[in-house]
Protein 1
Amino acid sequence: MAKKDTKNVGFSMELDAHDRLYYIAKYEGRSLSGQIQYLIQKCIREFEKENGRISDEDIKNVLS
């Protein structure tokens, strides 16, 4: 099986936030996971719009 270009990330969140985010996800026709992925991508786009593109070198420096 080929390795996926994804990373599984687990985290905790308050129940009220979970329920509200789940509601929004269903309202917008997404799964909860899809909604979280959408919000992460939106955050990245907004950050890069304001601060410039995050380069592979920037990522490498943070991960090392």
Protein 2
Amino acid sequence: MKHLLLIGLLACACASAAEPVNFHAVPAATFARPGGGELRTDSLKGRPAVVNFWATWCPPCREELPLLAKLHARHGKKVAFLGLAVEDNAEFAGEFARAYQLNYPVAAGREPAIALMRALGNEQAGVPFTLVVDAEGKVLYAKRGVVTEKDLKQALAPLLRP
């Protein structure tokens, strides 16, 4: 009987799981770029992307940044990479990104990052939070917490096929 109850609860949970949100269907967010200017998330339309939300004060974020830089160096011609810092100070975020040798665009904005993460299903707005999105905006992979190379390679595989 206990097993049937557990199976019923699991079936219920699976059936009620929300469909993934389309990245391009949520309202575009605007972030400040280090050195000036703005970056709008709708600039990714039509291109597959890895979007990583991070913060300078977040040890797990610092742990995964070298992996993201490495994958960008390897796949950046086919897939856009974007780092969105949950920070108010774009200049500080830019200095931090340079220190970690991030070779992809970064931008900062505490409030827009939190709102965007929540709109994308990360209700707690926890970081790090990484998405892999296809050119149509379909979220192929989403993870709150440190990403692994294996997970990102699997998520990127469909986007890298010739």
